[in-house]
Structure formats: C-alpha cells, structure tokens
Amino acid sequence: MQIAPPVLSEGAAPHVTFAAQTQAVERVIQTMHTHLHEALTLEDLASVACLSPSHFHRVFRRLIGIPPGEFLSALRFQMARRLLLATSLSVTDICFEVGYTSMGSFTSRFTHLVGLSPRLLRQRAHEFEPLPIEPVEHCPTTSSGFPLKHALLGQISAPATFRGTIYVGLFSSPIPQGAPVRCTRLSS
C-alpha cells in the first residue's frame, strides 16, 4: 500500500501533542475506511500516523480503547454485514471485498463475531418478521431473579418523524460483537 504521510511544517515541535495524536488516529481510521479491501499492516497504519509501529499501537489503543487490528477487523465485518444484507454479492466476493484472502478464516471469524454464518445471516434477514414490541416496565434482574446491583441509565434521541424500533445492547467489550450482556427494544 502506498500512502503519502502528511508533511510536517519546518520547525514543528518534536513531541506529539494529544491533539496531534488524535488527528493522526483520525487519519488512520479514514485510511482504514478507504482501503478496507487492502491488506493493511501495523507498519502501514503507523506510517499514516507518522509514528513508530509500537508507539502508534499504544496511542491508538489509548484513544480508541482497542488495538488497531481489532478496530480494522470490526470495520471489515461491519461492511461485510452491510454487503450481505444490501447486495446480491456472493459470500466469496464479499470476503475479498472486505480484505480477507481466506474464505475459511472469513467465515469462521464472521460466525464467531456475529453469531451466524454469512449465509445464515443473509437467509435469516430475508425471513425476519419483527416481533411484537412489549414495553420493559420492570427492573432488570439476574437469572436468579434478584435485582441487579448496578444499573446503566441513558437517553435515546431520535428525530420526531422516526417511526420504528430501536434496539439497545450492552456488550462486554468496546466492540458490539456476539451476544449482548443485556439488551432491550424501544418502540416509537
């Protein structure tokens, strides 16, 4: 991959500030989006950030919360899900479109992270009929029936014209993958 790193102005301070690190990580994320189908190494991404690979890895993880490779993988599977649900591309074509070179690796990782194989996700999406929405009016409990010791409160904002269902999930990692720890549905 050939990506020209940004040119630093003459006399620029040798230390990298938080703002500069944030901009560097934003450049890398933009590069990930635009080069999703390519093999991107840690060295490639560090070059875009103008940092050494080890320092870039630390900076990215500190700012984003997960390593750059895990973030890139999440972007690839997000795009794969979109392509599966919105196009008629074959699973093999989607595998290569999102930067994987092994159908077996793609399918097993996809199944592990999404919970369904690519083919099954596409099939189930076509069969899906929304379930009737029942309001959640009780305090969430553990499987033993006792109230939870901790609660997470939040607010959902949507345009006044929105009609539909909103799904909210709490996941055990920074990337929503696999089954949520807790979830609920909201209906407008």
Tell me what the structure shows.
The chain is mainly α and 188 residues long. The protein has two domains: 114 residues, Homeodomain-like (Arc Repressor Mutant, subunit A); 43 residues, no CATH class. It contains seven helices and two strands; from the N terminus they run H-H-H-H-H-H-H-E-E. The protein has a two-stranded antiparallel sheet. The longest helix is centred in the middle third of the chain and has 19 residues. It is globular, with a radius of gyration of 21 Å. The N and C termini lie far apart (46 Å). 16% of the residues are buried. The N terminus is likely disordered.
Kindly state the percentage of residues in helix: 40-55%
Helix and strand composition category: mainly alpha
Q: Report the sheet with the most strands, covering strand number, pairing sense and barrel closure.
A: 2 strands, antiparallel
User: Can you list the strand order of the major beta sheet?
Assistant: 1-2
CATH hierarchy, class of the largest domain = Mainly Alpha
General shape: globular
Give the number of helices: 7
User: What's the CATH topology label of the largest domain?
Assistant: Arc Repressor Mutant, subunit A
Mean pLDDT: 83
What Rg is obtained from the alpha carbons, in whole angstroms?
Answer: 21 Å
Oligomer: single chain
Quick structural gist:
With 188 residues, the chain is mainly α.
List keywords for this structure.
single chain; 188 residues; mainly alpha; Arc Repressor Mutant, subunit A; 2 domains; two-stranded antiparallel sheet; 2 strands; 45% helix
